[in-house]
Amino acid sequence: MRKRWRAGVVAVAALGLGLxxxxxxxxxxxxxxxxxxxxxxxxxxxxxxxxxxxxxxxYVGSGALGSGSQDEGQDPLxxxxxxxxxxxxxxxxxxxxxxxxxxxxxxxxxxxENVGEDAATFKGGSxxxxxxxGGGAKSADDKVFQHNGGGTLTISNFQVSDxxxxxxxxxxxxxxxxxxxxxxxxxxxxxxKSIVGINTNYGDTATLSGITITGDSKKKISICDRFTGxxxxxxxxKTGSGPDGTYCKYTTANITYK
Length: 258
Hints:
Its EC number is 4.2.2.2. By secondary structure, the protein is mainly β. The chain is built from no helices and 18 strands.
């Protein structure tokens, strides 16, 4: 679950990321996926600072970054500096390790057509604030969003389908934090394993509202799983699931099945 990144030497000005593109938005219901305006091959991790608008170009990785499998240690396509905003981007396959946020960041209207190792990894300190708004992710064999650093991640107006876990607070990182995740107005389409997983022994919290789940008549997708995390690299121990008012904060009224 622990990640590394190797910064590329490509300057932001050379990324092929245009400014002023039309923002693609969606509401709580699943929206149609956007069509790519063009395709860009990424051969080295691209550093992003300030606000960068991708103009709905599709970015695909190369073998130098990783295969887009579940192999650990793949490099990201994008590395966001503290305070960076990346918007209107489609990430194709292979996606390697997606996006890394080194501090607070905003990911807006980003669409993962086939999640690689992870869609995005959040690596800031205890005061970091991360925002994922709009967009969606498909075909994640394991995690979509991996929270390795501290701080709070807010996921809103997002859609996910065919996935393992939408969010996981790192269960075995060598440095652990108290983490928080807020998930609201998100559409989930089966198959999937769990929406969030948190570590209660570090004081993690998950707050969920406006969750719509489709194609899961037997309610196999777990809403909130609780674990005892560790710093040793061992697999964390699962201790429970469901709302408890302290760590997993939601009620049945916050979850709609269709």
